[in-house]
Amino acid sequence: MTLAASAKQISPPRAPTLRRAWQKVSPYAYIAPFFTLFAAFGLFPLIYTAFVSLYRVELQTPGDMEWRGLDNYTALLSDEFFWTSLRNTFTIGVLSTVPQLVMALGLAHLLNYRLRGRTFLRTAMLLPYATSVAAATLVFAQLFGRDFGLVNFCLGLVGVGPVDWQTGTVASQIAVSSIVIWRWTGYNALIYLAGMQSIPSELYEAAEMDGASRWRQFFHVTLPGLRPTIVFTVIVSTIGATQLFGEPLLYEGSVSGGISHQYQTLGLYMYEQGWGFFHLGRAAAIAWLMFLLILVLVGVNALVARRRSHKEAGR
């Protein structure tokens, strides 16, 4: 009896064991809600879209599915409007991304100085981003009006005739790109500003002691220090340009992207096929082609950035 009582007294308590078990399980419990929501609203729709893209599915009868295999993809590759929307997506992406990032870099460089009202200016940079895309597009549609638009009025003051910003291919793409530039320049400028403020001030002091001007400091200190941030903004802007939908849809209110599809993007083309012509299977195939295109573009950007960094590291 004495030995039994002693064994009971020296048996290890259960509380430390439960605490150690909870310490091992708790990290998974904390991240479980995110992965549950991601599986329900991210992963499952992605897999189901790939499944639907292999069938002929109509919006009126979504339960009737006819196996087509890769016929939806081959039909897209033989459709001239698919290639038109792909070309428009590329041109609008370039017209909106390049000026946007260049202007954002310049604005961030100015805001990095000790200016009066810096807080107000930084807050004002986010106002276009916080504005509704519908409101911004409707305003820009009025500004780019052919007969009474403010842009044509200003062009007339310098002797340029009125431009049809809705039916012209290049003109309409410039107009749509200007909406994207206006909305996202301030957002990217604040990202660049945060990256500039993380660059050590000792580098600027050393460059100034060597007699480097502000321009040389910008090109030889600021830009190299911002390289990871620039790669990030390029990748995010590329993804956004590939998925461009709201601006071209609301610019004229047409899913065809103009009379001759002159600014129809892949997002508009997918919407037209799915909810205009009721071909859900083909719309799902377009969505997956857009996904693959994004993967290719992001991979190319990452590969170029990695090769450039390796090249400079080997100098």
TrEMBL record:
Q: Boundaries of each ABC transmembrane type-1 domain copy?
A: 86-301
Which taxonomic lineage does the organism of this UniProt entry have?
Answer: Bacteria, Bacillati, Actinomycetota, Actinomycetes, Kitasatosporales
Q: Does the keyword Transmembrane helix apply?
A: yes
- Membrane topology for this entry? Multi-pass membrane protein
Taxonomically, the superkingdom here is: Bacteria
Task: Spell out the subcellular localization from the entry.
Answer: Cell membrane
- Keywords for this protein: Cell membrane, Membrane, Transmembrane, Transmembrane helix, Transport
Q: Specify the protein name.
A: Sugar ABC transporter permease
Keyword Transport applies:
yes
Where are the bilayer-spanning segments? 28-55, 90-111, 123-145, 165-184, 226-246, 285-305
Signal peptide as annotated in the record: none
Protein family: Belongs to the binding-protein-dependent transport system permease family.
Where's it mainly located?
membrane
- Organism, scientific name: Streptomyces chengmaiensis
